Amino acid sequence: MKQHGLAFITGALFGTGLCVSRMADPGKVLDFLDVTGNWDPSLVLVMGGALAVTLIAFRFVLRREVPVIAARFQLPVKTGLDLDLIAGAGLFGIGWGMIGYCPGPAITALGFGFIGPFLVVAGIIAGSLTCKLILAAKA
Predict the structure, then answer these.
(1) Closest Cα to residue 114, out of 35, 44, 24?
(2) Strand, helix or coil at 78?
(3) What is the CA radius of gyration of the chain?
(4) Minimal CA–CA distance to 21: which of 54, 47, 55?
(5) What Cα–Cα distance (Å) separates residue 117 from each residue in 6, 26, 85?
(6) Over the range 93-131, which residues count as b (16 or more CB within 10 Å of their CB) and which as e?
(7) How far is CA 66 from CA 16, 55, 60, 76, in A?
(8) How far from chain centre, in Å, is Cα 30?
(9) Angle 38-119-11 (CA atoms, 0-180°, nearest 5)?
């Protein structure tokens, strides 16, 4: 139950941060991605802030043998690049660049009540299910 409570608090903090920084606004994000046109570099500060917190916090967190409220750490085991990673990253970037939503901000933007974020999240779910079928067929 503690994990669920912490997940809720963390999600609320994350969602609030996305809204305050305007990362849930696809126009702001698309202006950031438009480096040859109407480029808005302000989201570099958001990413820089997240990176700074992560670089500092991970040093302390990973010194522990186990997480505070979980049985074990869930860290990536793969360290190399493969075709699936490169293709997935490319598809993710294309989708993000086309619409201006990545998954976190799209879910956060659901609270605004506009149809766009609902369609984006439905597409993310459809893409995830398609990926599951593709991976099952490869196995």
Answers:
(1) 24
(2) coil
(3) 17
(4) 47
(5) 25, 10, 25
(6) eebbeebbbbeebbbbbeeeeeeebeebbeebeeeeeee
(7) 28, 19, 12, 15
(8) 16
(9) 80
CA distances to 33, 57, 69, 84 from 81, rounded to whole Å, are 24, 26, 31, 8
Using a 10 angstrom Cβ sphere, with 0-12 exposed, 13-18 middle and 19 or more buried, the burial of residue 43 is middle
Say which residue the tokens 């793969």 belong to: 78
Q: What is the pLDDT along the chain (139 residues), one digit of tens a residue?
A: 788 898 899 999 988 988 888 888 888 888 988 889 989 998 888 889 989 999 999 889 989 999 888 888 888 888 889 998 999 999 998 988 888 888 888 898 898 888 999 999 999 999 999 999 988 998 7
Question: 68 phi and psi, to 5 degrees?
Answer: -65, -40
Q: Identify residue 89 by its one-letter amino acid code.
A: A
Rounded to 5 degrees, φ, ψ at 61 are -65, -45
